[in-house]
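Would you mind writing out a protein's amino acid sequence and the numbers that encode its backbone to help me picture the idea?
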Amino acid sequence: MNNLNDITVKKAIKGLKGTFTIPPDKSVSHRSLIFGALTGGKVKINNFSHGEDCRATLKIIKNLGCEVSFLDERTLILNAPKELKSPLEVLDCGNSGTSMRLLSGMLAAQNFKSILVGDNSLSKRPMKRIIEPLSLMGAKIKSNDFKAPLEIFGTKLSPIEYHSPIASAQVKSCLLLAGVNTQGTTTIYENILSRNHSEKMFKYLEAEIETGKDNKGYYTKIKKSQLAPKDINIVGDISSAAFFMVMAAIIPDSEIIIKNVGINPTRTGILDIFDKMNVNYTILDKKIISNEESADIKISYSPHIEGCEISGEIIPRLIDELPIIAVLAARANGQTIVKDAQDLRNKESDRISALSQGLKKIGIDMEEKQDGFIINGSQKDFSGGKEVQTYLDHRLAMSFFTAGLLCKNSINIKDFIWVNTSFPEFLPIFNTIYST
């Protein structure tokens, strides 16, 4: 990146080619640290993410008394104390909503006070969705009008049965982390099943946890448990792979293979959309890694992409991929309609508004809706020739980069450096599969 915040993207003049391994899944990396900290023992974590968000969780875990040493670039040993220790400083989550929401659940059940803070972007994000149910369990939390900073006075909690009004893996995981430290059975219901990385890791680490569906919805029940200190191997991040999958699908003469991609069914909504939109891809070499599904994915140029409707139960399974799916839709024949995705407005930016502003600026026919957007696709290259704002949002930055590869005129992306919060390897990987 040459230490510059901005980047200029030019039209791709040839296809993407090659085989590469996608970086580790950020969701699983966060959880490996937080869950590992509750084992009271030694945990080896293989294939840990280098993203700044995960580094924020790592620093916080150290501040809570865990000893961490790296054996190599992506392998670390976490030695957890028998009981977490009161932090000597505020716990800085940086830009990471995952860190703040999950750690709130864990810290609410401790016997000490802690303060969670974040950067300007994170400090504007809604925390009411976790504060309210934690308070029902007896948690004592002070906030800035339900936003960070969060002052958490750890205390003994009581189990609850909670019906989540939104399908959110962060809310569910927060309550499970409180529940695993609470006597009795804590139950969370969802109308639509959100990501289940926490449930899978709890099962892998031998917690007393049960999942299923009844007449009230999808449920997860957890009892107070001592987690087993077991080695954790982290799969690759499908949310990161999505950008390169879409690039290969829309840039002529492309064919790539991405290795070790996590294909947890609660995360593979984008593959279902590929099926609906006629994207050429193949799943290869399936395996299970620390209770998570993994595979290699082959993607090639797809000249007959079709528009479709994206709504309902699939939304939580691809909420993070919707910005890059919008770029894919812009190259489709016909109209793509996205509904029921209002939670996009509560991400690192208001992603519906910011995405619409940026894509329309470079010539994409997009209409913003309260809970999504409509894109009228075209096989023609986009006009480009403009500067677009990322609003300090890493997924917007990478989505605009991908769109820029099909612009007649180069585009300039402001604050592209924010990609480093989640995916510092983005440009190095791109440069290995595309060179002019």
